[in-house]
């Protein structure tokens, strides 16, 4: 056979070096796999987590659970439940620096002058309501009265944006559009369009003047658009809701407001201008002047009920505190527990009905925090809750 000379020491050294390189490479690869697997697992299971989630600290959870227990031990007309998604970080809240009455409304002057113009619609409408010959029932629910309106049964999820004022407004507008058309118009008015294109209304930081959405709806109009992921209508909602129900105050900042694009999504098949809907009137159910507090309260409540039973749901705004985030069921009343002043802010919902239970009168409202909150997304709130901070607004086609 052929004799093969022994390898030189250099060749032997190079061979050993090559084997060492392969071994080191294998170790590095194994180490990378060990490091990467948890990140890959997190990515696969949380790929939609586009917003940061703020879990409660141990101290916060202990404090909130104590608050929940205190509420439930009071035997109130409602039950609280610890909501682990109701995050309360140290929020960077954007201040409203402008006086809302100085806001310029396109083609109409300042908000103050528009406010005066709304008085005409308001006075006319309230007089018509007062003249109606009707007997109010002890219980009323728009979901039963106008059950064929798809929108009246829906619960919005405002997601990572302080857009409760938009969600409640467009939900109410959608209901009234359906009701006034005798069920022929089942379109959903777009959160995205009102939120992004009405610059003087506000944005993800909230609104500064409750009637502004309705003034915009009357003056400019709003297109259709469904919830996130629905691809329904001209401009569907694009704000994610993976940050909680409700999402923390961190998202109540102008920078989270979507960009205004006055064009429809490509699959809709209609142009923006032809899809606009408008209301003919915008009005308050306002507190009438009287020297007797009880008279003002009863008159306002009666007018609201007359409007609701005749024309459909109303736009309901009030001030809430931290306990409301942990509402589970029952008739919400102020619990008078220590919340350490952690959270108190204006919040808007859709008013859809009323009732009475064990001597407590209540409103039925649709919230915008998804289905996992409250009574499947809805709540019952005492009629007398924060009456003097309550605002009711509406509009007619």
TrEMBL record:
Residues 136-396 form the Peptidase C1A papain C-terminal domain. InterPro entries: Papain-like_cys_pep_sf, Pept_cys_AS, Peptidase_C1A, Peptidase_C1A_C. PROSITE patterns: THIOL_PROTEASE_CYS (PS00139). Keywords: Hydrolase, Membrane, Protease, Thiol protease, Transmembrane, Transmembrane helix. GO terms for molecular function: cysteine-type peptidase activity. The keyword Hydrolase applies. Pfam families: Peptidase_C1 (PF00112). Gene3D superfamilies: Cysteine proteinases. The chain crosses the membrane at residues 23-44. The keyword Transport does not apply. GO terms for biological process: proteolysis. Belongs to the peptidase C1 family. This is Peptidase C1A papain C-terminal domain-containing protein. The lineage of its organism: Eukaryota, Metazoa, Ecdysozoa, Nematoda, Chromadorea.
């Amino acid at each position: 056979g052929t004799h093969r000379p022994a390898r030189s020491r250099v060749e032997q050294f190079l061979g050993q070096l090559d084997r060492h390189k392969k071994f080191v490479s294998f170790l590095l690869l194994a180490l990378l796999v060990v490091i990467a697997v948890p990140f890959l697992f997190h990515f696969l299971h949380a790929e939609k987590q586009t917003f940061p989630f703020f879990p409660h600290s141990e101290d916060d959870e202990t404090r909130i659970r104590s608050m929940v227990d205190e509420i439930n031990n009071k035997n109130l007309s409602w039950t609280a439940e610890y909501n682990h998604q109701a995050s309360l970080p140290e929020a960077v809240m954007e201040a409203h620096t402008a006086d809302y009455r100085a806001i310029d409304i396109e083609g109409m002057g300042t908000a103050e002058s528009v406010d005066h113009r709304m008085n005409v619609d308001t006075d006319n409408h309230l007089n018509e309501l007062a003249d109606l010959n009707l007997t109010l029932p002890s219980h009323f629910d728009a979901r039963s009265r106008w059950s064929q309106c798809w929108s009246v049964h829906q619960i919005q999820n405002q997601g990572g944006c302080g857009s409760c004022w938009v969600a409640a407004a467009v939900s109410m507008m959608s209901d009234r559009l359906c009701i006034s058309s005798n069920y022929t118009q089942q379109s959903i008015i777009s959160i995205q369009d009102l939120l992004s294109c009405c610059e003087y209304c506000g944005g993800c930081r909230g609104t500064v003047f409750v009637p502004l959405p309705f003034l915009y709806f009357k003056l400019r109009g709003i297109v259709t658009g469904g919830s996130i992921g629905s691809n329904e209508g001209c401009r569907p909602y694009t704000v994610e809701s993976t940050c909680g129900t409700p999402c923390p105050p961190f998202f109540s900042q102008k920078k989270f407001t979507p960009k205004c694009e006055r064009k429809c999504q490509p699959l809709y098949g209609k142009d923006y201008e032809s899809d606009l809907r408008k209301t003919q009137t915008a009005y308050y159910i306002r507190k009438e002047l009287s020297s007797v507090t009880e008279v003002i309260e009863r008159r306002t409540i009666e007018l609201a009920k007359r409007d609701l039973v005749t024309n459909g749901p109303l736009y309901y705004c009030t001030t809430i505190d931290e306990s409301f985030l942990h509402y589970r069921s029952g008739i919400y009343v102020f619990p008078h527990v220590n919340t350490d002043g952690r959270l108190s802010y204006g919040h808007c919902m859709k008013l859809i009905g009323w009732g009475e239970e064990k001597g407590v009168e209540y409103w039925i409202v649709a919230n915008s925090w998804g289905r996992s909150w409250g009574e499947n997304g809805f709540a019952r709130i005492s009629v007398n809750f924060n009456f003097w901070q309550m605002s009711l607004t509406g509009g007619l086609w």
